[in-house]
Amino acid sequence: MTQAADSRVAHLPTTQYFCPSGDYDEMWRRADQDPEGFWGEQAMDLDWFKRWDKVLDWKVPYARWFVGGKLNLSYQCLDRHMKTEVKNKVAFYWEGELGDSQVLTYAELYRLTNNYAAALKRLGVKRGDRIALYLPMIPALPIFMLACARIGAIFTVVFSAFSGQALADRVEDVEAKIIVTSSGMHRRGKILPLKDNAVEAAKRCPCVEKIIVVKHTGHNVEMDPSRDVWLNDLLAGCDEYVAPEHMDSNDPLFVLYTSGSTGKPKGILHGTGGYSLWIAKTMQWAFNTDAQTVWWCTADIGWITGHSYVVYAPLELGLSSVMYEGAPDYPTLDRWWSIIEKYGVTILYTSPTAIRMFMRHGEEWPAKHDLSSLKILGSVGEPINPEAWLWYYRHIGHERIGISDTWWQTETGGFMISPTPGIQPHFLKPGSATKPMPGIVPAVLDAEGKELPNGQTGFIVIKKPWPGMLLDIYHNPELYQKTYWSRFPGYYLPGDYCMKDQDNFLWLLGRADEVIKVAGHRISTAELESAIVGHSAVAEAAATSRPDEIKGEAIIMFVTLRKGTPPSVEIKNELTRHLRATIGTLATPEEIFFVNLLPKTRSGKIMRRLLKAVATGATVGDTSTLDDGASVDEAKAAFAELS
Ligand code: PRX
């Protein structure tokens, strides 16, 4: 890997931003040497009900920021703009898949947030209660997130492509008393029945008292009057002001489930003060935003990117944003480019998977539209290959604007490594996320924890806490300690490979653990395996991935069937359906191979390295620790036969 990365660096052209002046090196040094002074100054840009007593309380592995400070994120996003010209500015240009649209100003968003907060209170929701938000990309989702923040209810957003069962797992873990959903959602001309999934989850989770239903699709929805309530009915008589709760800086704001090395997704818990500050500052630094910015982050709000950079940071900064409900290439392949032209989008922030998909469709589609409003481009979610970077740069940016490739994670709250045109222009290298944000002190370590010289690939660690760092794993501090802090004690372990080149540019090279990134969506092999063995025909299973030209990685599964079930196309389709029903559409495997034995070590551990090698057609390498060499040949034969 080291070699491959090095040769990429050697062959890449560089380009430059045209941006305002500032001193990145000086800012980074200041944040490193005097974090309390630096962040104390930055935090003055937020509105605090009560100033903090201490900027940072750091006892490995817990960082607590702005201790004693009181604030409310919905106040940061809305109330404080009511005193300025932002009040009548557009907060969201919403565009539905069917071509319908809605424009929401800050004043309207403020009023609606208060109404929704009043409605939640009317249902008995109190500070600290948990609410699950299972909604498509419609304005009700950010409004509920703001309303929850306003009254101090902890919310968990569940991505709308997750199944009813996956929703139930999350609702159960977080003990949500309310699920908010919509009648359904539009996707590629079809209506997906979100309400039905919510009912399935509520039936499995006794903690759920109510389902609030937003009417979004026209189809008939069955309502159980003892449990279900239409949002519109609930809002009647809720036209009132709700005072924002004075939240402690370290009070939880939300839980967002993400995949790790275990079979069950873990609840990443984010706080209020540090998180609010981190996302707003990093957004400014990475994208040089200003009052004229028309921002479009194409991520679904169900992921951290949507939480931080569709909803909260743009609102904190008083920006106008585009929010789009539907598929990127529906009903025509130029849907996105027409949206950019229509709203005069100045910053487009999207994923390498989307870029690669558009690359395949061809440059004639963006060429139909005037994209000259664009000033900066962004990328997130997975490593961007230089070819995709250059296509984006040429055909969307027309070689006149830079790309901020932002590396970060659910756990980090906001951007960690990214170009910072909002501070100072610097050179870019296609495929590198470039330099750490002020306050981020990364290092690249070998397996023993020794810092590697530039040019070598190892594990990235973050040596110091930063304000957006997760508070904990919800209800599981042991897992928090084990996952992030045990391998290299004292350092945060993100789980990615990284290489720092001779210019100190960082290259994030993908996951170093059992996490797969399919179209930028995070899913673990353990989660896939535990889901598929839930099917009565499956005896054992192992999941791995192979590189995919569009999605980055594609899921490959090796399965041994129970006696009595012979391999067949029918059972393969059945298992695919089972995975989609258990987890959601993102768990769809590219291929399922049936084998009689999974390759294992003498101690019974599945040899994942070997399966991966087989799935990708690479050489298998050392198999001396294998229990049964025959199983390797079998796996290889299965692959050769079926692929
Ligand atoms: O492997 C890295 C990859 O996405 C992982 C985090 O996934 P998630 O928590 O779902 O958050 C995605 C959105 C922030 C990381 O561990 N990743 C994310 N951004 C990049 C990236 N890999 C390379 N370059 C990036 N810009």
TrEMBL record:
It is an enzyme of class 6 (ligase). CDD domains: ACS. GO terms for molecular function: acetate-CoA ligase activity; AMP binding; ATP binding. Residues 24-77 form the Acetyl-coenzyme A synthetase N-terminal domain. Its EC number is 6.2.1.1. The chain crosses the membrane at residues 131-162. GO terms for biological process: acetyl-CoA biosynthetic process from acetate. Residues 527-605 form the AMP-binding enzyme C-terminal domain. Residues 87-466 form the AMP-dependent synthetase/ligase domain. InterPro entries: Ac_CoA_lig, ACAS_N, AMP-bd_C, AMP-bd_C_sf, AMP-binding_CS, AMP-dep_synth/lig_dom, ANL_N_sf. The keyword 4Fe-4S does not apply. It comes from the Bacteria. Keywords: Acetylation, ATP-binding, Ligase, Membrane, Nucleotide-binding, Transmembrane, Transmembrane helix. Belongs to the ATP-dependent AMP-binding enzyme family. This is Acetate--CoA ligase. It comes from Dehalogenimonas etheniformans. The lineage of its organism: Bacteria, Bacillati, Chloroflexota, Dehalococcoidia, Dehalococcoidales.
